[in-house]
Amino acid sequence: MMDFNVKKLVKDAGAALSRVVQLTEETLGTSEKTELDAHFEHLADRANMTKSWTEKILRNMEAMLTPNPGNRIEDFFYEKIDKKKPNRLSNLEYVGQDMIEAGSEFGPGIAYGAALIKVGQCQQKLGQIERDFIGTAANCYIQPLRKFLDGEMKTISKEMAILETKRLDLDACKNRVRKARSMLGQQSDSGVSPEVLLDQAERELRIAQSEFDRQSEITKLLLEGVSSSQAGHLRCLHEFAEAQARHYAQCHATMQELQRELAGLTGSSYHPVDHQTPETTENEVDRARVLCDYEARDTSELNLARDEVISVSEISGDEDYLMGFRGIEKGKVPRAFIERISSN
């Protein structure tokens, strides 16, 4: 048994040395190299491109969903040891927590204290919406990409490396056959006739060719499977886009609700007068509820959503439009789409 292992070790070392010699000769241009067919090369190039872009998209997605590098490293560590990730608060939730505490300290009975509590509760709700989106995005898009890279692409890389080894062995055999043929009719230094050496070299070449062809087919099948993986990634991308659309819709609805609550607070006196145009500065500012959705026709108008509360003021000489204000936004709004609910 020990003798067999030593012989195998010597044989493997000889094969490895032969591959190194073959690769060196190819690099120097003194030896021919077996080229793979154009279709195979196309498949290999596409797989490499897919791997490269998938890695880049995955890194950017992880950075977008978890901006803190320290948190990403911590999450990676917990995944590796198969433990649950820490349930840390988001920045939105921290801000919301502080606002609620400050509002309670100032007193919920005054306008500013009540507003702080309302905005803080909104930030906490937005934080939970964000947390849900991050979890959904990880499940529907990040995990499939990571599984593809850790599974299919690693297998392809392994089989490509084996194919390169088989290709070096094949070309080394071809070189031995050419050398044996060139020795025909001459006296061999080893005492073995050139004909015998040629016959042995040709047998080794047939075996090497067979192994190379078999490995080439295995690798080609794996490379062709990349198309199926891309189709799967396309479905995952659709799911991610839908999750992101739901996320922003929930955020928008939450902010609209906050605006209504702030407008309804007793004693609230906020109006965006700093953003009025000269024509409306002297006019009275009222609060108004939107009766139905309205899409602005150009940049001079304001988009409206049903039931939201905005501030409005008269525009001198305009019977069809009022000037509308929403936070730092302003623009004309049609009178028919709003109903005034209070006046200063």
UniProtKB/TrEMBL annotation:
One of its GO terms (biological process) is membrane organization. The keyword NAD does not apply. Keywords: SH3 domain. Belongs to the endophilin family. It comes from the Eukaryota. The lineage of its organism: Eukaryota, Metazoa, Ecdysozoa, Arthropoda, Hexapoda. InterPro entries: AH/BAR_dom_sf, BAR_dom, Endophilin_SH3RF, SH3-like_dom_sf, SH3_domain. Residues 25-271 form the BAR domain. One of its GO terms (cellular component) is membrane. This is Endophilin-B1 isoform X1. Residues 283-343 form the SH3 domain.
